[in-house]
Amino acid sequence: MDIAYQPIEGRSRGYYLLLAILLTLVAGGVYATFTMIAHGLHLSGMTNRVPWGLQIVMAIFYIGLSAGSLVVSGLYGIFGKAEYRPFARIAAFLAMLFLIAGLLSIVTDQGRIDRVFVKPFAHFNATSMFSINPALYMGHVMICIFYLWALFKKKGRLTKPTSVIVVLWALGVHTGTGAIFAFTPRELYNTALLPPSFVAAALSSGAALMILVLVSLFKITRRHLDIALVIWLGRLLAVFIVVAMYVILIENAHRFYLIESREATSYYLFSGYHAVLFWGGLIGLGSVVPALLLFHRRRGSSVRWIVFASVLVVVGVLCERYLIVLPGLEHPPDLFPGWEIVGSVLDEGIVTYTVSVYEILQALGVMSFIGFIFVLGLKYLPLLPVEARAHGQSQMLKGMIARAVARRAARAQGVSATRL
Amino acid sequence: MDRRAFLKTGGLFLVGTPCLGGLLVMSAPRTAAASGAGTRRWGMVIDLRRCPADCTACLDACRRENNVALHDDPRWDVHWIRKVTIARKHGKEERTRTVPLLCNHCDNPPCAQVCPVQATYKRADGIVIVDQHRCIGCRYCLIACPYNARFFNYKGGETWTNTGYPKRSHGVAESCHLCAHRLDEGRPPACVEACRARGTGALCVGDLDDPDSEIARLIADNSVKRLRDDLGTEPKVYYIGL
Fold first, then answer.
1. What are the residue ranges spanned by the domains of chain B?
2. What are phi and psi of A410, to 5 degrees?
3. φ, ψ of residue B206 in degrees (nearest 5)
4. Domain B38-240 has what CATH class?
5. Nearest-CA neighbor of A320 among A353, A363, A286?
6. Shortest Cα–Cα distance, A19 to chain B (Å)
7. Do B143 and A78 touch (CB under 8 A)?
8. pLDDT band at A4; cut points 50, 70, 90
9. Does the pLDDT value for residue A330 go beyond 90?
10. In 3-state terms, what secondary structure has residue B217?
11. What is the pTM of this model?
């Protein structure tokens, strides 16, 4: 069956206003970046002891989000779920944009941006995760572009194998990103579970964001989206959350159990703002609550609750990304085991990182840049399907949908039940 | 997925993997034989028993020699060599020790391992050095160094006290290079020279591979320690009396 695509009109005042706002924010990011190029990175909140900050947090957050494409395109390509085929284009497009956002965040974070475009290629270092990853990222962007081309040109025989490659490549991308941290001799970084936990959190945040994008886009453009498709994605999200939570808990139990890393881990888990971000943000609101909501029989089949749970997951994973980068730097390496440093010209103990205005401007700029391209893409590219309907459903889903439909009908009185 | 598609995908991967592998092999880090040639392996011994707590001769000399910036802000100050005071965490020992810290010029330097542009590399004579014209300022080396011996130039603004050595721009990583420019001319590093001139003589630089050198004798005759020996980085700065 051929799927009909229809770009949005994009002539309303709201559309142009949105573009203008996004462009303004991009300008803010450009301003912040050039100011730092001129005066130095001390304008950021980064210091000798905390040399990575918000931009790296955002970079790995974006790269994780691009896993949304993996989920949705993989559903069609690998698992043969044909009802998700209408989303393949928008998923691949978003994946590409998020990867670009990740690359942009990293590039604008460098001390010498002028050298970034030549030196890493001229002097590639195969033992550096910072060399391998950009290659993986750019490969991913290129595969996404090829995949999009195959989808646009309706090259049916190419799309399926390409979607398999996209999925496998994305797995490499996320493992590699986790390895940036895991492959360094820092106490809170060097855990072999970091790449898998990165993949797991990437899958859950990516699926959650895809749910948010699909539901809001179909609602704003008043297109038909079957609840069943959202419910099933919600179930998938619930599974991802549980897997991510499992890996993260094991990772921390392990390093807390081992005496050599107990001091650092208890600082990370039980003191200061990390404890709030970890237990409140990542575990509580970001994992347990959404998992309970999504596994709940009634709430798990209500679009409103699924959307709410997805928002929580995205925020929870943002907390997780922050926790990957910062605590491991704020906690000092143990230079003299058995001794403590009581005097120095440098901050040798536990330090804190404070985000600066320039970094926030940069982060907003990158976000707005891909937002701008996305909004333009909706107008000029045939990304959005006219409608998305579920065909064959499992018995379990059928029951869930029937109940959801009945409740909705009772509430909405007369409004078409399956319409969002 | 049908059989044809499977074969296609598999074929692509079969072709792609060796290509990627070849790329990795071709780009493996080369040993920098061009600079620091010879059979020497530079190392340093610091005798803490002869290092007074209030003396800053080595720090001042290093700052002067290498035009290292100071902004009076511990967040951005650059210290190629610094002194810290340490005390026992447990036990009754009241005495504190003052320890000069600098780049350990590891035989297995994690900073060089992670550098995405091979700007940080180990010379044939064992000195770990940053190519200031290649560094892109990603700060991965600061993350990887287990000794906090690496610094990022956040602000620039060096005073050009020694015109014989270049200033640096902000936006690149820097650290002690054991005064490679002086060693190459047969002169000792600025810190060692200053320490000797002060009469303390706590610092000694020499060839670790030469059994007759002063440094080899110091290491053989004393109980020496290296920082975080357990990490396997093989640091080449040895401490007596730590």
1. 1-30, 38-240
2. -65, -40
3. -170, -175
4. alpha beta
5. A286
6. 32
7. no
8. confident
9. yes
10. helix
11. 0.87
